[in-house]
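fyi for ur records
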Amino acid sequence: MLSRIDHVALEVPNIDAYISVFTETNGLKLIRKGVATATGRQIAMLGDRLGTKIELIENPECDAIRFLHVAFATNDLACALATSEASGWALVRGPSEIAAAKAHSAFLIKNNVEIQLLEYQPGSPDLATW
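which gave:
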């Protein structure tokens, strides 16, 4: 089912400023920048040496950092999705491919909490550790 927390997504008003804030800690490195599939907004994936990540999603209209979702990695997206739905989670969007991450993803919601399920393909840049 779900193997681990993959990342936490945060909405930020200025992506480059927040990339600097988090990478200046020397605890996170920029893995990749891209565009969010659902919104077309800029994203940045930052990771620590063990593979835990923070995803920054830019929204110039927000005035403060804001929590968006928690993402969980899985080796079987279809099974994890079925189990989650049986537990009362409602599908918001997906499953869909995230080509830049070499992954398949689905978003679910329950009690105003959104989660993302991710199944990575071999060679995904988002699996980088250092």
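The radius of gyration is 14 Å. thats all i got for now
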